Amino acid sequence: MSLNSLWEYANPKKFIQTTDRVLPWVAWSAALTLLVGLVWGFFFTPDDYRQGSTVKIIYLHVPAALMAINAWLMMLVTSLVWIVRRHHVSALAARAAAPVGMIMTVIALLTGAIWGQPMWGTWWAWDPRLTSFLILFLFYLGYIALWEAIENDDTAADLTSILCLVGSVFALLSRYAVNFWNQGLHQGASLSLDKEENVADVFWYPLLVAMAGFVLLFIALVLMRTRTEIRARRMRALLARERMGA
Amino acid sequence: MMPDLGKYADAVLSSYAVSLVLLALIVWLSLRRSKRIKKELEDIESKVKSHG
To answer: Is the ipTM of this complex over 0.90?
Structure first.
């Protein structure tokens, strides 16, 4: 696919036509993959020799944390496309992704706290990764509130894009916080290309499927919510036109 | 069928419960808003057409 043909999808009509065909496939693939990953992880994996059965929380915590960060990075890319090319669909896609990313952040924070209590003896610590994740959550809240607070769509897209650029620092920080500051309770990244450092295969394969399920669910939700935002924008335009004509 | 979660059963089960509820919530809210906005837009478009 050439870059020129990619821009065709920035046309709202073309985007809705294409997602009409694609969305059911993505949604059902997401449901199936998520189901397989979570059932496999919960029912058919052993306990960890140190963490006991709490290791089963990894199938929710890691994919949710992964999506919390990557949702913001996806919003960064679409916000940059809005700033540079002024394609409304890209700004609306960023808006559509924010609540999904925020839910992923909440899941990561809550499952982390529930997991941390029996392992660390505390629900919360002002650890670099935990703190940067909390700040990322606050950025999601601020981003959503800013969209809601501004009536003019273009102005809202401009200001939220700038907020997204600033928040990207924390999205990246929450990913690499453990590496920047070698301190705190949170252990290093669970996933690594180095086989010695990566989680054992018996946990890794179901985790991989659960992560694929979360990615597909995120894509399905963002496609559906972007379609909704496109329609809502058209509705606002029609109502404004009608008010001016009246 | 249910695995023996031992002394960590509360932690594991509450993690799954809270996560599944939140995922179901975002799916339900997204579907509900999608249907509502689609219907409202169709109503407005038909009204605009009928007014010429």
So the answer is: yes
CA distances in angstroms from A241 to A44, A207, A244, B42, listed in the order given? 58, 51, 5, 16
Write down the pLDDT at residue A195.
64
Tell if the CB–CB gap between B12 and A57 is shorter than 8 Å: yes
Min Cα separation A100/chain B (Å) = 7
Each domain of chain A, given as residue ranges in start order, spans 23-245
Percent of chain A with pLDDT over 90: 73
A6: pLDDT strictly greater than 90:
no
Measure the CA angle with vertex A210, ends B17 and A90; round to 5°.
100
Q: What angle do CA A178, A179, A183 make, to 5 degrees?
A: 50
Token reading at A207: 């985790």
**How far apart are alpha carbons A162 and A99 in whole angstroms?**
18
Backbone angles phi, psi at A79, to 5 degrees: -65, -40
Report yes or no on whether pTM surpasses 0.90: yes
pLDDT tens by residue, B4-47: 999 999 999 999 999 999 999 999 999 999 999 999 999 999 98
B12 vs A56, A221, A228: nearest CB: A56
**A154 phi and psi angles, rounded to 5 deg:** -70, -40
What CATH code is assigned to A23-245? 1.20.120
Measured in angstroms, the CA of B44 and the nearest CA of chain A are apart by 7
pLDDT at residue A162 tops 70:
yes
Which residue out of A38, A54, A241 would a mutagenesis test of the B interface target, given it has the greatest number of B Cβ atoms within 10 Å? Answer: A54
Question: Distances from the Cα of A148 to the Cαs of A27, A84, A93, A142, A145, in angstroms?
Answer: 27, 23, 15, 10, 5
Instruction: Name the CA radius of gyration of chain B, rounded.
Output: 22
